[in-house]
Amino acid sequence: MGFSPSKSIPSVTKELNGKEHVVNSSIQKKGDFTVLVIQEVTPRLVLRSGNAVVGLENSGFGKVHAADGSTVSRQVERVEKTESN
Question: Superkingdom, according to UniProt (predicted)?
Fold first, then answer.
């Protein structure tokens, strides 16, 4: 999520079963923005800054299932290359 460099960055948690849990996040500078990078995909996030609270819901979470190491696109093919010495 991008923020103006002059604005404070909110804390971020995930909401599971009515409780908030810490998520890993980091701050990066991208062009004219300060970017909050959230290291997890989850159905619900909560952003807090002072007394302000915003809830974000990912309505697409869990709708597409793919096996580990796979993809949902039939146009993508995984090719493993061997290292030649």
Answer: Bacteria
